[in-house]
Amino acid sequence: MTGSEFIAGIFPYIAVALCLLGTVWRFVRWLSLPPHVKWTLYPVPEGIAGQLKYMLKEMFTFETLYKFNRRLWFGSFSMHMAMAGTVLFFILYLAGWSTIFVVQLCLLALVIAAIYIIGLRIYDKNLRLLSNFEEFFNLLFVAGVAALGFAASVPHVSVSLRLYFLGLIEFHPNTSVLSTVHILAVFLGGLFLMYLPFSKMIHYVSKYFTYHHINWQKK
Amino acid sequence: MTKENEKSQETDPKYPYRSEKLLPREQRVVRFLETLQEVLGAKIYNLPLETYLGTCAKCNNCAEQCQVYQTSRDQKDLPAWRSDLLRKVYKKYFTTSGKLFGKLVGAESLSEEDIDNMVDAFYRCNMCRRCGVNCPLAIDNALITRVGRVILAQLGFVPTNMTLSTRTQLGEIGNTSAIPKAAFIDTLDFLEEELRDETGIAIPIPRDVEGAEFFFAAPVSDYIMEADTLLGIAKTFYAAGASWTVSMENFDAINYGLFYSDADLEKVLNRLLEAANSLKCKTIVIGECGHSTKVALLFQKIYGRPEYHGMKVKNIIEVSHSFLKEGRLTFDPTKNPETVTYHDPCNLGRGSGLYEQPRELLKAAVMHFVEMTPNRQMNYCCGGGGGLVVVEDLHDWRMSAGGLKKVEQLRAIGAKLVCAPCANCKKQIRELVQAHKLDMEVVGLHDLLGKAIVLSGKA
Ligand code: SF4
Ligand code: SF4
Fold it and tell me: Fewer CB under 10 Å: which end of chain A, C or N?
């Protein structure tokens, strides 16, 4: 097996497995910690419906940032929506319900948003003071994955890309259809997935605990 | 390192009011790390600390909500910068990624200068939690401040006023102001006389009544300095026909442990619970005091002895409000004709969820109620929160960076009276009113209720 065959045929499974396991591990670890000091922040949204409403609104509007930090909101909101859009439309594309063009738009937005935030973190003196290597590295990582993903999706190769991913899902990946740029995109994307749950970007899990278990603790 | 061979210097000349039996400089780093380890070992902070210290996105949204930073514009007042002082150390010594990758993941070794910075920074935060309301990741910098202070206290950096008061409270005298029992009894007698003179009714302040429905404790200074609040509370209980009692063994609700020590918090809290238990009272009612209400509410289950877990804890506002709702109180608002505004004490609002109850009481008892903006969960701290109101070297800071936002709010509303049902807020706002020459007076909630309450027919 060559290096490229490994990256295209085996590595994606390892990456996804590590991403899922890492996420589950973080979740279970935080869930199993002993009772913590009660530190409720009032008002607590009423009932499960109220809490869901708050969470969904925050997830789809980033209202907290919107209210106090509009410049960063613009970048952060765009970046997260582009990220979600990439995943969603890519799945639709694989299912045959969307064109690759929408995915490309999302990827492009992702690159621009990440670079915009990097710029803001350098330009704004407070954000500059607070940001350390990790912040820049994470943003560059996101921009890099998105840029490579975009490069790998240019129309003349996109058909083989779709075949490859469908093969991956059916557990018999056809690695021969991939070009070098595809291999690189798969590799970097896989690394990102593996890194995600172990980085501070784990906030997609931590938020559940900081809101539900701490801020909204009733008893 | 054993306690015996530690030489300590008494105070740091830079911080005479917040240093006591200081560890020599060269021993501080080691002790700091040992204490952080102990804090993590106690487990009760692990979930908040792991999430707060591990995931902050450095978006700086907190700074836009912090009244201190909004006034000072000093980068050292950026909440996330302050929290980073602890975050760096936590990552370096207690996380795998920090040990492996160091600065690349924001982990840094602790230095004596870092500790100096913390002494400054953790005492420029009011622990008001305003910055937590709109943190996208629900991180609470106030809790990080608290943990930072708990650790610093082990090196000897702790407001001397607080430790002195707590020692007195835990000692024979049993209260933070060192009021002897006989003098306290005199005070209560005097208050009862006042009540009789004013109303013509013998309204009691019951003492050591076994099995009373409500066990009442206020910050001890209230009995002396906030007589009107106490009188209002006695009238409220009387008008509602409720049975209540003050304990002669423990009448002081103050618990400064919230601001610097878990061990002291636990002792003071259990003393209070024990006093209520020994009188066979099932509900503890805390007077007009934010921090002690929050301590009793939030820490009862984690630090209170198991036999006290069944007790209910309430703030007097909640109790008076339920009397109002049950139709047990009647007010004549014409007795309070002045315009009144309401200051949400952070520990009663964000810390205990009492937003609407005091407003409903006020609206029933005063003629003109006006609302400051922002209010409720976005209310500005008075600037004395986090116990800073008793730290003497911070007086000028409290009158400027700490309290200016509150002053602006008060000036803009122009009410004659500002109602602040918390002993610390009252003290701080009074000082602000004086320092900034505002034409207003600070009152407690029950001062106003007491004035307007209708007692006729109750005698
Ligand atoms: S608002 Fe929250 S996530 Fe953003 S910098 Fe402050 S503490 Fe960190
Ligand atoms: S707790 Fe209050 S004073 Fe402290 S950083 Fe947050 S907003 Fe500022």
Answer: C
